[in-house]
From TrEMBL:
Protein name: DUF378 domain-containing protein
InterPro entries, per database record: DUF378
Basic and acidic residues bias: start-end ranges: 8-20
Keywords assigned: Membrane, Transmembrane, Transmembrane helix
Region entry Disordered, spans: 1-23
Any one Pfam family match given in the protein's UniProt record, by short name: DUF378
Length: 96
């Protein structure tokens, strides 16, 4: 007696099981997106430490007001702007 369910390998190859929304969400994240995310996490942790304990981790590591510290702050800001662009692009893709 056979069952109603297809064999497991047949189910994996069935293209009808995938919806369009799943494909747009599961889009691959590029290296630039990962870099932006890591920089925003660094910035978020730094601002959390500044707000909670008055510790500026970036200034402690790179020096207060040094070129390296200012570069890190600028990169975190650029990463946030890039993420705004990425989120607006993802939102417009989802409206189709």
């Amino acid at each position: 007696m056979s069952t109603m369910n297809p064999h497991i390998t047949e189910r994996r190859r069935n293209p009808e099981r995938r919806s369009g929304a799943d494909q747009s969400i599961a889009r691959r994240i590029g290296a630039f997106d990962w870099l932006a995310m890591v920089l925003m996490i660094i910035g978020g942790i730094n601002w959390g430490l500044v707000g909670l304990m008055n510790i500026d981790l970036v200034a402690a590591v790179f020096g207060d007001g040094t070129t390296a510290a200012r570069a890190v702050y600028a990169l975190v800001g650029l990463a946030a702007l890039y993420s705004i662009y990425t989120m607006s692009k993802m939102a417009s893709d989802g409206q189709r």
